[in-house]
Specification:
Distance between the termini: 158 Å
Protein name: Phosphatidic acid phosphatase type 2/haloperoxidase domain-containing protein
Structural class: mainly alpha
Number of helices: 13
Number of strands: 0
Helix content: over 70%
Organism: Astatotilapia calliptera (Eastern happy)
GO molecular function, one term: sphingosine-1-phosphate phosphatase activity
Keywords: Membrane, Transmembrane, Transmembrane helix
Shape: globular
InterPro entries: PAP2/HPO, PAP2/HPO_sf
Length: 287
């Protein structure tokens, strides 16, 4: 029995060894000379490795992308790192203005270096307040008996109203705070003088002094005192910590502009008498 089995195996091997059956004993080769099964398995392994490499690279790419975005500076920061000469000059001037204004605010509080003089400086500043001048002008207008005096007083009253409204409008637009954080007083709130730029007291003092120098006959000492008063009124607000130095300078310039505007639209005596009659309810269109 075993001999017959061995004989059958030899016959089968001899049959398979023939040239026409050689393809059955070998695996098919690919174009590159490798077996098809090994090529398929290698391809599957390559795909698995490629997927794992992509998955491992995705967090790295995401992390590098996040780092690049985090290190990327916004446009404003880039502009600040490379400012223009004009920007540097403006920032330097503003820094000097704030520093000098804070140092000059020696009467800002009672505990300041000149705190004992605070009441006197505040009284000086009150002489340039808009409410003070408007009420004083109205009182003088009711007591004036000459047409020339009433003409000057009516134009002065209109100039004061123009000054208060213009300064309040500019302050609302700019909204610059003073060198020291202070709550506006009751009179400042009435006159709408709640911000720092421009200085309302300086504007009013410059306009009133120029107005009186142009329309009143005054001696030389009085003229000098009037100019000195206007300067001290503007400085008093800086000493009280209400305004910066640039606010005071711009206030003086704005006051001169108001005076020039009032000189351009100066109301005649007849027009002033008409306005007085309307205000006192004694005006009649038939007379």
């Amino acid at each position: 029995m075993p001999s017959s089995v061995r004989s059958r195996a030899r016959e089968r091997n001899s049959v398979l060894g023939r040239p026409e059956f050689m393809s059955l004993n070998h695996q098919p080769l690919c174009s590159g000379g490798a077996p098809a099964e090994s090529r398929g398995s290698s391809r599957r392994l390559g795909q698995i490795k490629h997927q794992t490499s992509q998955q491992s690279e995705e967090p790295t790419d995401r992390g590098s992308r996040d780092r690049r975005e985090s290190t990327k500076m916004p446009e404003e920061d880039c502009m600040q790192l490379n400012p223009s000469f004009k920007g540097i000059a403006m920032n330097s001037l503003l820094a000097i203005d704030i520093c000098l204004s804070k140092r000059m605010g020696v009467c800002a509080y009672t505990s300041s270096s000149w705190g004992g003089c605070r009441s006197m400086v505040a009284l000086l500043a009150l002489t340039g307040h808009g409410i003070t001048w408007i009420i004083g002008t109205i009182v003088c207008l009711t007591r004036s008996n000459t047409l020339a005096g009433q003409e000057v007083l009516v134009n002065l009253l209109l100039a004061l109203i123009l000054d208060v409204m213009t300064v309040a409008g500019v302050q609302r637009l700019v909204k610059r705070r003073g060198p020291w954080e202070m709550t506006p007083s009751f009179l400042d709130c009435i006159a709408m003088d709640v911000y720092s730029f421009p200085a309302a007291h300086a504007s009013r003092a410059a306009m009133v002094s120029k107005f009186l120098l142009s329309h009143l006959v005054l001696a030389v000492p009085l003229r000098i005192l009037l100019v000195l008063w206007a300067f001290l009124v503007g400085m008093s607000r800086v000493l009280l910590g209400k305004h910066h130095l640039t606010d005071m300078v711009c206030g003086f310039a704005l006051g001169m502009l108001h005076f020039s505007l009032m000189e351009t639209v100066w109301l005649s005596s007849n027009t002033c008498q008409t306005l007085i009659s309307i205000s006192t309810l004694s005006w009649s269109p038939f007379f």
